[in-house]
Amino acid sequence: MQFKAPVESYSGQVREITIGKGAKALKIGGETTLPFHFFDEGSIPNPPRFALEVWDMEPVTWAKWLLEPFKDVVSDPVKWAMKCAKDFAVDAVCLQLASTDPADKDTTPEKAAALTKRVAEAINVPLIVYGTGDEKKDVQVLSKVAEVCDGENLLLGPAIKENYEEIAKAALQHGHALIAQTPLDINLMKELNIKLGKSFPPDRIVIDPLSSALGYGMEYSFTLMERAKQTGVIFKDGMTQMPIIANLGGECWKTREAKESKEQGILWEGVTALSLLLAGANILVLRHPETLKLLREIIRRG
Amino acid sequence: MFIIGESIHIISKVVSQAVKERNPKPIQELAIAQTKAGADYIDLNLGPARKNPEETVQWLVKTVEEVTNLPLSIDTLNPVAMEAGLSICKKRPLLNSASGRTDSKERMLPLAKKYNTDLVLSVLTDRGCPPDVESRIESIMETVAYANELGIPNEDIWIDPILLPVSADQKQVGEALEFMKILPDILPGIKSTIGLSNISNGTPEELRGILNRTYMVMLGRYGQHSVIADALDKELISLNKGEMPEITSLIYRVMDGEEVDLSSLSQKERDYLKTTKVLKGETLYSHSWLEV
Question: Under CATH, domain A48-294 is a member of which superfamily?
Fold first, then answer.
């Protein structure tokens, strides 16, 4: 008796979001089935997207094998971003405005915004921009970035429960998409999306549920992303149907394990990334270009 | 079902202050209010009762018994306080609670036999809270058997499934409900209770009531014997008395998966419908569940 594999079909859809403008435009999400379920009915119009993380200042804590691919450009964010776009086949660049941390360099919003614009204009891929997570500073920085980069259609974040209103307003006014971030809690994730949705279009939101590294809580991120994806695709909950971003590079490379050897670092980032892809991440932010290459190869072969 | 009034709780500032100062007035006011509201038991929750346990609990029991004839539920983890409280209650009290934890089986459980009280037994074990229906069953069968061997019959035992907040772990809400549904089959004659207000712990204050009331109705459908709850919630008392049959039947219909046309419902009915769907696990919980 021939085995006939069951084929499922779902009625929910992950929203498709476009970031970047003109020839740079990049589509994320849009699927009507579960991650990698090519055997089920439904479509997966966009493959997983990959970005590399670029800092607006030279990092002092990165392992030398992590800095190696960028060693000649690491003190110039524009050149660094250009190198990622040109040499490492990224879908997007993620600019981490680390220098705006008030506890560190406390770079002004104006300076950060001017740099962001230069980076955005220099590369031929869309730009993701992350603040440091400082509740108050991010409002000033991200609002200014939004204003100065009007029309670039950046993906800006993090907008959190404590400061989303102002950041969303600036994003809406200047035509950018928004990263809604909550601390590994699916109920708070839904709550923030509902609150945001009152003044900001849900189809311009990307969910960042926080990505933890292997051994440091990855399974929490995994189950959350999986649940969010299933709740959206199977149960059609509109407030969990946004594409998901896994900003995992920093989390992986700050581990003790990644600092022990290059091979271990790449594996740490790679295993975390692959796991979160399976859970439903639509766009991933990595640090090492070799991890990115490895993942594309795995997906290609699969 | 029986309502065990929860208002006299050491976490309340009013109560802990009154206990500290040995001021009977605020305690007695709460006891009277709960009695008038229609509670069937008054719970006295002392928490760990580390300071002067015997003297504190006995003062509380005497103070409350001055103004109400309702039986008391002595609610503490401290066996010394528990014994001191149970020993002087005028009416047959409720020992709230013992569990499958080794120290509880050895020190708390036997007090129910010694003082001839009713006994709340929770599903907790040395390994903590069982994560699903199966493990709750396993744990409680073992603990009840232990109690039976001490001479405590099922009829005197009230099982507590340990309820977690819907905002913390939505899945557990369904597990607890499923467990209560199965209980009469696995332990015939056994009674039940539950910390009802736990369901809404962490939810914005003004939205807690509807979560508590809806879950109570859902539990009631499966024969829940009692709840430890806010007796001062008039709508809760009313629902329990069967005075709101449309709401009760609406909740049952949603539990059964019936499609209900929202436009045919009043605002209140819509709220109960949405709340039932969340507690069923059909809708993912968020604090804004009534707005969506």
Answer: Dihydropteroate synthase-like (3.20.20.20)
